[in-house]
Amino acid sequence: METPAHDDLPTPTPAQRALDALAVNAEDQTALDTLAQSEVLVPVPDDAVNGEGADASTVALPVLEQPGGDPIVPVFTSEGEMAELLPFVSRYRLIPLGALASQWPEEDLSLAIDGSSAHGLTLTSQGVRTLLVR
């Protein structure tokens, strides 16, 4: 017996499947590797300078303040996930997560991947550098 297709449900991306696997087992190396190799959407605030004169190899990280005051950078695995949490942001840069992690700042800055979803993952600054750098 076949299960009917649900055209209204988007197919999970490899990054979303990796996040689901990490929710079950935080040390799943295959899922961590998949996540590090996946591209994520890094929001670009609409009021940001349009990048003239900026180095194309650097990315301005969008930093949000958590309710407790801790800074966090939100990134997303799809446009739909980004629209859920940041509906007012219409522009983004697509960046491999491992490359972003390899240039992660030294300060205490957390990373939230799909923060508003059931499969969301938040990593500390140290976690970003140790788990996702490839």
TrEMBL record:
Residues 17-129 form the SseB protein N-terminal domain. InterPro entries: SseB_N (IPR009839). It comes from the Bacteria. It holds the Pfam family SseB. This is SseB family protein.
